[in-house]
Amino acid sequence: MFELQNERTELLEKIEELFGRKRYAELRDLLLPMEAADIAGSVRVRGRGGTVLQPGVELLEQAEDFPKEAPLLIITDCQCDRLNLFGRDHAFLVPRGRSLPFPAKGPVFYLE
After folding, report:
1. What are the Cα distances from residue 15, in Å, to 33, 45, 101, 104?
2. What is the pLDDT of residues 45-81, one digit of tens each?
3. Structural domain boundaries enclosing 79
4. Domain count along the chain
């Protein structure tokens, strides 16, 4: 159990480092082989609301170094815009007790 907690802490630190340095391709490579349930156990969603996610989705859709067949995992506090996901496979990771402001076409995973 202690080792698992250390691995989780190291993973979160690495994610924060890569995100802070805007190393998105490396962040993608770190998270791509993970299952949604693994990621769900490694993050805490804390929102302030009103996040506009569509520009991020469009950036990934247009990025040459992001695989066209790669699914998207959208992590949100549910206070976000309606998304056009361009037909990509996707899932949402949201806090338990919250609901998206639009009907989800992909699976929705809840975390405490």
Report:
1. 14, 14, 27, 26
2. 665 667 788 999 999 999 888 888 889 999 888 888 8
3. 47-111
4. 2
